[in-house]
Amino acid sequence: MTHISSNFIRGGQSNSVALDEPRKANIYRSFGKRTFDLLLCIILAPIALPVIAVLALWVRKDGGGAFFTQDRVGRGGHHFKCLKLRTMRVDAEAHLVEMCRVDPEIRKEWELYQKLDNDPRITRVGNILRKTSLDELPQFLNVLFGDMSFFGPRPFLPSQGALYMGAGGKAYFDMRPGISGSWQVSARNESTFVERVEYDEDYFRDLSLLTDLKLLWQTFVVVIKRKGK
């Protein structure tokens, strides 16, 4: 695991968020949340691991490898390898650069949202996995290893650090990023990258067991309704 200075990521700013919050919230943030994650891992492992294996075989039939790993920024500014089922063509990164070069509208959309609404790089199988959010399932292992949480801010790319900090993001670095979270269950296809930062700050301020239980239910609803992006 690589590491970058949290002072560099934060621009030398210290985070004093929630110092006066209720003691219960602080206890959950410090100890309870990780315990909650591990309990969910134990409960979900007999289902999640076989499903990941089956989906991996399905992705391979579409051509290319089954899994996609990418550096993401985690708690304290540490980098980790974020796991996903591959949903895009193998040369997706190079293809994005070329699309942004030749199409100003695509470049504008990427710069504003850091994603494309109708991304031509997504494969046939990948489109189904994204709509059901099943492409995120291998991140179960990231949670088990302690890089992520089931619920939290969506992990961003190292290249997006300056943009994230420029939007006022600070609380992110005191949390593990999540498989699901406030932004993920929102009308996220209409949210800008800057608005995503606001979701993260609000989540950190309101963090509690009840908040995560609500997100558990909301995530279930989003998956059932196939509203993933």
Automatic annotation (TrEMBL):
Keyword Transmembrane helix assigned: yes
Superkingdom to which the source organism belongs: Bacteria
GO molecular function: N,N'-diacetylbacilliosaminyl-1-phosphate transferase activity
Keywords for this protein: Exopolysaccharide synthesis, Membrane, Transferase, Transmembrane, Transmembrane helix
Signal peptide (from-to): none
Start and end residues of each Bacterial sugar transferase domain: 33-225
Cross-referenced InterPro entries: Bact_transf
Pfam family, one: Bac_transf
EC number(s) from the headed UniProt entry: 2.7.8.36
Enzyme class: transferase
GO annotation, biological process: polysaccharide biosynthetic process
Membrane spanning stretches: 38-59
Family per similarity comment: Belongs to the bacterial sugar transferase family.
Protein name: Undecaprenyl phosphate N,N'-diacetylbacillosamine 1-phosphate transferase
Protein species of origin: Pacificibacter marinus
